[in-house]
Specification:
This protein has helices at 26-36, 38-45, 60-64, 68-85, 135-161, 179-190, 228-231; strands spanning 4-8, 11-20, 53-59, 113-117, 126-131, 164-171, 199-204, 209-217, 220-221, 233-236, 253-255. It has 257 residues and is of the alpha/beta class.
Length: 257
């Protein structure tokens, strides 16, 4: 049995959902992010071009050990460096990175990387992502488990009922996870299986207005989408109805869209 089956415009859909965590302990990292990262984001974002997207990558243990004035000083140093360096970096096309070298900024006790990218159309021109050693191998293991748990159930509904199979991945952190990285990892994990879902979406639920990214629909991945309006869309979570609380709808729901 899948988590939800519903008819949309006459087509039966089977849906499964799972959260994806980049590494054990990321909940604590998220809890401290506002204090350790948000002041830097708020200072820098307004001073960078609003028509471009920038991502600063720092090691997860870098900011975590800083306290008080030391943390403030590192924020000041990084902000000045970002504002000076950002306009000089090459701009990556939509959905891609131009891999910037790791840099030791004087006054900052850890290496950083700064990326400059073509925006995806949402108002988020600067973000800080925390990097964990071997996090990508951990992320791959997590997605392998998600696929092994969910895809056989979805495949059963597809073969027995003609349902379109949909896998929903839930992202609840903003430091180590984004659509670019998850798409790369998903495509790698899916090459190891034969029963992949018809459609895979990533939903960012750690903010009030959820953001949905189509990671793969059929053979077309997130990287193949060139129209910014098609690469992500927002959902007002306050307006959603929890239909899974109704016993009659936990197995099959008739939904008109």
């Amino acid at each position: 049995m899948v988590e939800l089956a519903c008819h949309i415009k006459g087509q039966l859909y089977a849906l499964e959902h799972t959260g994806i965590e980049p590494f054990t302990g990321h909940v604590q990292v998220d809890a401290e992010a506002k204090r350790r990262i948000q002041p830097l984001v708020e200072r820098v974002a307004a001073r960078l071009p609003q028509t471009e997207e920038f991502e600063l990558q720092v090691p997860v243990d870098g900011l975590a050990v800083l306290r008080g004035k030391q943390l403030d000083d590192v924020h000041d140093t990084l902000a000045e460096w970002i504002e000076r360096i950002a306009p000089t970096l090459p701009i990556a096309p939509i959905g891609r990175y131009v891999r910037s070298p790791s840099v030791l900024v004087p006054g900052v006790p850890f290496p950083v990387r700064l990326h400059r990218m073509t925006p995806i159309g949402l108002p988020n021109n600067f973000q800080v992502n925390l990097i964990v050693s071997d996090v990508e191998s951990r992320r791959l293991d997590r997605l392998r488990k998600a696929l092994s748990d969910k895809c056989p159930k979805l495949a059963g509904w597809k073969h027995s009922c003609g349902a379109k199979s949909v896998l929903i991945l839930e992202q609840n952190d903003i430091q180590l996870t984004n659509a670019h990285i998850v798409t790369e990892t998903l495509l790698a994990a899916e090459r190891e299986i034969s029963n992949r879902a018809d459609e895979v979406y990533l939903v960012m639920t750690c903010i009030d207005r959820w953001i949905v990214y189509p990671l793969r629909v059929g053979d077309r991945s997130y990287f193949d989408i060139t129209n910014p309006e098609d690469r992500a869309w927002e959902i007002d979570s306050a307006k959603l109805q929890d239909i899974t609380k109704r016993p009659a709808l936990t197995r099959r729901a008739e939904v008109d869209r």
